[in-house]
Design a protein that fits this description.
Elements (H helix, E strand, L loop, with lengths): L2 H7 L26 H8 L14 H13 L4 E5 L2 H10 L7 E5 L4 H10 L6 E5 L7 H4 L4 E7 L11 H10 L3 E5 L17 E5 L13 E5 L3 H5 L6 H4 L17 H14 L5 H33 L6 E3 L9 H7 L8 E5 L3 H10 L4 E2 L9 E3 L11 H6 L6 E5 L5 H13 L1
Parallel strand pairs: 2-3, 2-4, 4-5, 5-6, 10-11
Antiparallel strand pairs: 1-7, 6-7, 8-9, 9-12, 11-12
Helix pairs in contact: 1-3, 3-11, 11-15, 13-15
């Protein structure tokens, strides 16, 4: 199947059950077992099936299978939010005394998780320059457990040197984790470029209308070969006493996502609801079409803002003079760059004035909605960062982030024009 067909059909057999065209919503917490033997076999992984919705659910399973296939992965595990996906992916490999390496251009919530919350768990975070990764190798030691970056960063709208990052990671047998939320599964597939784990906040473009929180972790095929007998990931190669002494690398299942499900989600419980999984399935069906419209709208608006005398700078890789334009054409489908970009007003007060005077754009701390959104990162999504952290992340007090929706682009341009010139 090609991608547009996968988004509509993969992982669901309409000829089973009642033959419904739409994937059913299995709105249940628990499942009845045929007998005591089946119950025991399910818990021992001798048989696969539904046990309890904290672990798995038939509706969520369709979403996981479909998303994994769409992302060119072998398996996926859904979570209750994008932040839950990031936390589980890191916690799956790192423990007290370890360190992780993250990009210098990440979503503010991810930075806070890594540099503050995980610090209290005894996990150290190091930061590398993702534009060229020329300082990455010197940060690696025998306690480094993963390298985390975004394929299209929020809100700097930068594209990292993915090939260099992957090359260094493979040299040291370290797992790479790419947050592909902004680019979306429809425009870019990191696994094709050698990335090991892909994560998404499916609350964004996947759902498309801001109706459901969710996250997902996708594992590439044959990741087990990297993990097997790798001292960095000893816990995958030794008996898990919390689960009958099973050894993840000796099971015939993808080990990374299996351990997230059986160890982390089992204990922490950051599980998606079946209804949200169903909403996300609906979003996947139209994602490809929507991402094309988001991208074309964003490019038109970025060009308008670039020519406006009261705008200092526009950051959008779709613009020919943008530093990341060549990478956008190299990595992303047809060079489309999603609907997210940022621009800088003349100063902080001008940024506030623009925010307060838009009529179609809504002031919201979300992205990827069908409706257009305007945000001031320094005072909202990245407010928790210090002045130095904001500067290091490339976020100025006058920076405005736009999540361009599916409205008529001329209407959106006129809305911004009147807000800027008012």
């Amino acid at each position: 199947m090609k991608k547009d067909t996968i988004a509509l059909h993969y992982g669901y057999d309409k000829n089973k059950g009642e033959g419904t065209m739409a994937v059913p919503i299995y709105q249940t917490t628990a499942y009845s077992f045929k007998d005591s033997k089946q119950a025991a076999d399910l818990f021992a992984l001798k048989e696969l099936g539904s046990i309890y919705t904290r672990l798995n659910n038939p509706t969520t399973e369709v979403f996981e299978k479909r998303f994994a296939k769409y992302e060119n992965g072998i398996a996926a595990v859904a979570t209750s939010s994008g932040m839950a996906a990031i936390f589980n992916a890191i916690a799956n490999v790192a423990e007290a005394g370890d360190n992780i390496i993250i990009s210098d251009k990440l979503y503010g919530g991810t930075v806070t998780l890594c540099t503050h919350t995980l610090k209290r768990f005894g996990i150290k975070t190091k930061i590398f320059k993702s534009d060229d990764a020329n300082d990455l190798e010197q940060l690696i030691d025998n306690k480094t457990k993963c390298i985390l970056f975004e394929s299209l960063s929020n809100p700097q709208i930068s594209i990292p040197d993915i090939e260099s990052i992957v090359l260094i990671a493979k040299k040291y047998k370290i797992i790479t984790i790419c947050d592909n939320t902004v680019a979306s599964v429809a425009l870019f597939n990191p696994i094709k470029w050698g990335v090991d784990i892909v994560i998404h906040s499916t609350s964004k473009y996947t759902t498309g209308q801001g109706t459901a929180l969710g996250g997902i972790i996708v594992e590439r095929e044959n990741l087990a070969e990297l993990i097997k007998n790798n001292p960095r990931y000893y816990h995958f190669n030794e008996p898990d006493e919390s689960y009958h002494g099973l050894i993840y690398t000796k099971l015939p299942y993808p080990p990374f996502t299996l351990r997230v499900r059986l160890s982390l989600i089992r204990d922490i419980g950051n599980t998606p609801s079946p209804f949200n999984s169903w909403l996300l399935i609906q979003g996947l069906e139209t994602l490809s079409l929507r991402m094309e419209k988001h991208s074309t709208n964003a490019l038109k608006i970025a060009k308008f803002l670039s020519s406006h005398p009261k705008i200092k700078k526009v950051s959008y890789p779709g613009l020919e003079d943008n530093f990341y334009n060549k990478r956008a054409k190299k990595y992303f489908k047809n060079g489309l760059c999603s609907g997210l970009f940022s621009f800088e007003a003349e100063n902080f007060e001008e940024a506030k004035k623009i925010m307060d005077n838009t009529k179609i754009f809504s002031i919201v701390t979300n992205i990827g909605d069908s409706k257009s959104i305007i945000t001031h990162p320094a005072s909202t999504t990245h407010q928790q960062l210090s002045d130095k952290e904001l500067k290091d992340a490339g976020i100025s007090p006058s920076l405005i982030r736009l999540s361009v929706g599916l409205e008529d682009s001329d209407d959106l341009i006129e809305d911004l024009k009147q807000a800027i010139e008012k």
